[in-house]
Amino acid sequence: MSGLGLYLAQRISAMVMIPLVLTHLGVMIYAVRGGLDTAEILSRTQGSLFWGSLYGLFVITASIHAAIGLRVIAYEWLKLSGLGLNVFAVLVGLGLLALGGQAVYTVVLA
To answer: How does pLDDT run across 9-29, given as a tens digit for each residue?
Structure first.
């Protein structure tokens, strides 16, 4: 992907994440102020297509956003370039996607 494509992908992923982050923070504040414990929260998220979709989209966009950002840092600080830089970014993105996907699965489907 070109530099412009990466730039746009990171900016678009940030724009998608804004309402997701605000929703997440709002839910966390509601849960804490409402005195909900872990079991109550999990009982509300288990099997929910809405929460699974919301957090699934969050994981996808955060993985893309973070991988591109870390790619830039690896280029500037570690002087990685070419194939090594791209492999690094892809591995970071896939690793974050796997970890986040496992978390979503555990909270919503397990």
So the answer is: 999 999 999 999 999 999 999
What CATH number has the domain bearing residue 26?
1.20.1300
Our count of domains for the chain comes to: 1
Name the helix (H) or strand (E) containing 94: helix 82-104
Q: Stretch 70-77: mean pLDDT, rounded? A: 97
Work out the end-to-end distance of the chain between its first and last CA atoms, rounded to an integer number of angstroms. 36
Which of 14-18, 37-41, 77-81, 91-95 is predicted least confidently? 37-41
CA distance 66 to 24: 18
Instruction: State the pTM of this model.
Output: 0.89
**Structural domain span for residue 57:** 3-109
What are the helix and strand counts (H, E) for the chain? 4, 0
